[in-house]
Amino acid sequence: MKEGWEYRKFESCLVKVPKQVQVKSKEYKTEGKFPIVSQEAELISGYWDDETIVYSHKDPVVIFGDHTKNIKYIDFDFVVGADGTHILSTKNDINPKFFYYVLKSIKLRELGYARHYKLLKEKYIPVPKLSEQQSIVDYLDSAFAKIDAMKANAEKALNEAKALFQASLKEMLEPKEGWEEKTIGEVCLLKSGNSDANNSKQGSLPYVKVGDMNLKGNETYITVSSTYVDRQENIKNIFPIGTLIFPKRGGAIFTNKKRLTEIEICCDLNIMGVIPNKNSILPLFLYYFFNTIDFKIFKDEGASIPQINNKNIAPIMIYLPLLSVQQSIVETLDSLKSKVDRLQENYDKISQECDALKHVILRRVFE
């Protein structure tokens, strides 16, 4: 315990906040008069227009996500988001920003999607004099601003590289003289995944689900899976090496994930495969072409569940040069993409190191 610091139970630091009207996540708007603050990672989750449910407070507050453990410092009027969003208003002798930093320094054990507020209630909060609280806030604001600047510079370099790559991608795939106009249906076989009743069986054939696209090593090529099936039982359902796959059902469509298979796989019903005729189109040329397509164009406002079908993909026009020209384009794009990938790795590393450095600083101040 630090000399001159008082230590109080968590809830004794707070002023009770009346229960607020909470907007359900499915009702969030993309535009509106008032920001919605919820327990999600983003500072602002959406927008709302009804001013009668706006939370307005003369002093800033801290938001704690009951399920997510996310902590936010809020110094503006807002509408409360979905269930699990706790508004923490501090007593007069506790600086709200100081309280925010204290909570950021506390490591709560993981309870999954259970509620974590009960863990906070067990904690003791250090409370020095207000003048010392302000000094600590000033120090942490300054230190964190420098750390955030480092992270922002790395992010800026990454975003510039991504923008350059997209511009190059678009320019290189623009049709040139002598390129042949085809539809995807003419040069590719479209194939959907299958429902496999024995997908828990340990076999030799990867059975890929949408979530497997996020596995480490599957960022561009599908190389691993979380589930395997018997090869002989699924011989007719195999997607060959060089198949382009993407989510075909649900909100995952709009994540725009596209992957190439580097191994033979089976897929579940939520995935579509586009198998290129290798006499007409190279798999990587097809991959880069599909990365120019934003799947939001397939959004049907009248459909309860988004769906991509063969009728959406088969008519898409593609312009094809000779295979030798395709290969040259692919090699150039591969080189550019590798630079973007390195910058992404660099940004991820810096981001992790910045987060770790912030936590070290917080622990030194409060522990």
Instruction: Give the low-confidence spans.
Output: none
Q: Main beta sheet: strand number and arrangement?
A: 5 strands, mixed
Fraction of helical residues: 25-40%
Tell me the total number of β-strands. 20
Radius of gyration, taken over Cα atoms and rounded to an integer in Å: 26 Å
Series of secondary-structure elements, N-terminal to C-terminal? EEEEEEEEEHHEHEHEEEEEEEEHHEH
Pairing-aware structural class of the strands and helices? alpha+beta
Quaternary structure state of the chains depicted: single chain
Mean pLDDT: 93
| Strand residue percentage | 15-25%
Strand arrangement, major sheet = 12-19-16-17-14
* Alpha-carbon distance between the two ends: 8 Å
How many distinct helices? Answer: 7
Shape: elongated
